[in-house]
């Protein structure tokens, strides 16, 4: 069975505009949650309805978390990206969660669905993983 992880960018779009509902419902496989994506969403959950939605998401599908090796590998990837592209420390901090999401998908053989093409294409050059851009 194919596994999918929806990136924060896709979920925020979906919550705000319902733009991806049909595509999500027609995925041929199982959607799993990323612990990193959920953490990003919790950080911005201001309303009671936002928090209820996140609790429902956590209960609806398995939550996949980065392994210790994913964390260690993420630091090495960010070191390489920073050196190769001259990216400043703040941007590397911003990329860290994206690297962890990508590595989690890779570890579970899941396809990551994102609308953040540029960051995930860059990460893919350092550690290939399956992803689609919506």
Summarize the helices and strands and which ones pair or pack:
Blueprint: E1 3-6, H1 8-17, H2 21-25, E2 30-34, H3 35-43, H4 48-60, E3 63-64, H5 68-85, H6 89-108, E4 110-114, H7 117-126, E5 131-133
Parallel strand pairs: 1-2, 1-4, 2-3, 4-5
Helix pairs in contact: 3-6, 5-6, 6-7
The CATH superfamily is known as 5'-nuclease
Count of alpha and pi helical runs: 7
CATH class: Alpha Beta
CATH architecture label name: 3-Layer(aba) Sandwich
Strand order of the largest sheet: 3-2-1-4-5
The name CATH uses for the topology is: Rossmann fold
- Please indicate the percent range of residues in DSSP E strands (runs of 2 or more): 5-15%
Structural class: alpha/beta
Largest sheet: 5 strands, parallel
Q: Estimate the mean pLDDT confidence.
A: 97
Number of strands: 5
Question: In percent, how helical is the residue content?
Answer: 55-70%
**Unreliable residue stretches:** none
- Molecular shape: globular
Radius of gyration: 15 Å
* Tally of separate domains: 1
Question: Can you write the helix and strand succession as a string?
Answer: EHHEHHEHHEHE
- Ends: how far apart? 21 Å
Please provide a brief summary of the model.
This protein is of the alpha/beta class.
Your description of this structure?
With 134 residues, the chain is of the alpha/beta class. It is 63% helix and 14% strand. It has helices at 8-17, 21-25, 35-43, 48-60, 68-85, 89-108, 117-126; strands spanning 3-6, 30-34, 63-64, 110-114, 131-133. Helix 5 crosses helix 6. The protein is globular, with a radius of gyration of 15 Å. The model has no long low-confidence stretch (mean pLDDT 97).
């Amino acid at each position: 069975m194919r596994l999918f992880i929806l990136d924060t960018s896709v979920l925020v779009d979906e919550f705000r505009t319902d733009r991806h509902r049909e595509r999500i419902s027609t995925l041929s496989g199982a959607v799993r949650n990323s612990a990193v994506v959920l953490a990003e969403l919790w950080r911005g959950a201001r309303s009671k309805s936002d928090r209820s939605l996140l609790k429902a998401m956590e209960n609806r599908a398995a939550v996949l978390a980065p392994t210790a090796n994913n964390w260690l590998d993420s630091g090495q990837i960010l070191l390489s990206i920073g050196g190769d592209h001259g990216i400043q420390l703040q941007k590397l901090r911003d990329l860290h969660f994206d690297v962890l999401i990508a590595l989690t998908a890779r570890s579970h053989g899941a396809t990551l669905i994102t609308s953040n093409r540029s960051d995930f294409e860059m990460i893919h050059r350092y550690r290939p993983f399956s992803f689609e851009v919506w």
